[in-house]
Amino acid sequence: METVELKSSIHKIIDQIESDQLLRSLYDFLKTRENEKIGGAWAMLSNEQKQEVLAAFDESEEDSNLVDPKEVIKKS
Prior knowledge:
globular, 5 helices, mainly alpha, single chain
């Protein structure tokens, strides 16, 4: 997925969120990372943590492993 598509998808998900608490959490998360150096968080991870992130990414490539965003919103 290209940058434009990613941004569009993120906007669509955010537009569906009704929870102020969830929106505040997302805002805070994004705001704290706005000025971080690219790759800074990755560099701080241990090798084991990096492997876990990469494994989670690989799992996310399979649609059956993904959770519908509406379910996530409903649970929050």
